[in-house]
Amino acid sequence: MPRPLQHPASADISIAAVLYALSDPVRAAIVRELTKAPQGMNCTEMNQRLGLKLAKSSCSQHYRILRDAGLIFCARKGVELFSRVRTQELSEKFPGLLRAIMAGYEAGHRD
Amino acid sequence: MPRPLQHPASADISIAAVLYALSDPVRAAIVRELTKAPQGMNCTEMNQRLGLKLAKSSCSQHYRILRDAGLIFCARKGVELFSRVRTQELSEKFPGLLRAIMAGYEAGHRD
After folding, report:
1. How far is CA A28 from CA A23, A66, B70, B90, in A?
2. ipTM confidence score
3. A108 interfaces chain B, CB cutoff of 8 Å
């Protein structure tokens, strides 16, 4: 049996961990794409969507940091891991934060 | 003559660097206190305000990261360094971001 995936409870999500997790442009792009796919998305699809060639280990590491920070919820389906953004909990806990961050990255791409 | 202080131009402030700088609770607290002191504040006053006993080197390191990220503007007055938050530039570039982050830290303190 694979190890169960750990997720922080909503009350334990810290703003410091969220900011650190999203201070990496690749992780921020993963969250942006996951937000558009509420049914979840696995690593392979994500790589295709972002035009990235991340090694499986780098991909796992990014997902782990996002999961530990409380930004995404991951579930195993067979050998694949499907992830979705914890949008509702995050918007209740940190109103306006995700939107402001995503807009900030968007603005950077337009420069 | 001391080295001149380097500050990124507004166009070069990146969301990634801003998020990384504010992912440290001490740096976020420094920005929060500086926001309340538009005339600026030096390291000694900041330590007193925050009830911290940061070594001068740690304090300088925090200020340097905040300055390099474009969050604060620093100016020498004699041997002291006075800093202020680049509030207007930041709110034009990343609307709602600083407010959402500061509110997130506030909420964490209340938990």
Report:
1. 7, 9, 20, 19
2. 0.91
3. yes
Task: Compute the distance between CA of residue B97 and CA of residue B90 in angstroms, rounded to an integer.
Answer: 8
Tens of pLDDT, residue by residue over A7-64, are 999 999 999 999 999 999 999 999 999 998 877 787 888 888 888 888 888 888 999 9
Instruction: Return the H-helix or E-strand segment holding B16.
Output: helix B15-22
Contact A85, A35 (CB under 8 A): yes
E-strand ranges in B1-110 read 72-77, 80-85
**Cα B73 from Cα B84, distance rounded (Å):** 5
What the block records as the tokens of B88 is 């207007």
Question: Which of B2, B13, B25 is closest to B72 using CA atoms?
Answer: B13
Q: Packing angle between helix A97-110 and helix B15-22, nearest 10 degrees?
A: 140
Residue among B23, B95, B111 minimizing CB distance to A16 = B23
For B102, nearest residue in chain A (alpha carbons): A15
State the best of B12, B13, B18, B19 to mutate against chain A, taking most chain A CBs within 10 Å.
B19
pTM: 0.92
Distance set, CA B103 to CA A18, A41, A104, B96 (Å): 13, 31, 18, 11
